[in-house]
Amino acid sequence: xxxxxxxxxxxxxxxxxxxxxxxxxxxxxxxxxxxxxxxxxxxxxxxxxxxxxxxxxxxxxxxxxxxxxxxxxxxxxxxxxxxxxxxxxxxxxxxxxxxxxxxxxxxxxxxxxxxxxxxxxxxxxxxxxxxxxxxxxxxxxxxxxxxxxxxxxxxxxxxxxxxxxxxxxxxxxxxxxxxxxxxxxxxxxxxxxxxxxxxxxxxxxxxxxxxxxxxxxxxxxxxxxxxxxxxxxxxxxxxxxxxxxxxxxxxxxxxxxxxxxxxxxxxxxxxxxxxxxxxxxxxxxxxxxxxxxxxxxxxxxxxxxxxxxx
Length: 310
Prior knowledge:
Blueprint lengths: L2 H7 L17 E6 L2 E7 L4 H16 L16 E3 L2 E7 L10 H16 L19 H17 L6 H12 L2 H6 L4 E4 L8 E3 L3 E3 L6 E4 H11 L14 H11 L7 H5 L1 H19 L7 H15 L8
Antiparallel strand pairs: 1-2, 2-4, 3-4, 5-8, 6-7
């Protein structure tokens, strides 16, 4: 489905194919009747998209700065071809640059979002259930990582990495069955999904899930700085992580169970999110900043002792 057809389905008339402002999926910025709008893919099929809208509307009604579908004459969101698209407002502001205030405010916003989660999955968001990694996947992924690293003359110890990831695989069932508290959350809470105006505004809630709370936090620690040129080219420093948590903990207190499984949660989310990122996107290895981020991620998965909850 081309961009012109997508926009026409929402009643927007354009003459030439729009260019996506995001390199990895169609995200179109348009002007209609003097308003700046974003048209993008969202959860699919339409039933899932409507659940997402109900959830984000709940967040917005409770004071969370998050985009929700704009009011237009056409259905919004709607199925178009095999995908589902939504029209959001374009949010003016500045991008994240790693300042102390931005880090604290980002933590505060996520804490407020988690605090609003109900005890049950009221909005019927997709439930996290990725506990089926196997040794063959690890071996194939590490092989790909080694090949990509070799092409750009980047040193990566594949043997040690494979040993570590194979050990993490053995922890999956324990994490699945231990009873970690779940939350409804936009997930994918990263700097490139926030606009500061001047407080953080969540502009991409479309990966919302029902997921163990500390998995969501682990993803922040691992990939908050991913895919954003104005962000630092490494994970949070321990001091920055403490700053993020100081904002987060204004609204949320983690349980002793969560604290005891924090390191294993970091490792599991590395398996789920970072291994895939490093093994599937060869173009990332041509980016020096991304290589530095990869190095800091690998260091973290081997030793996360400086990133605790006090």
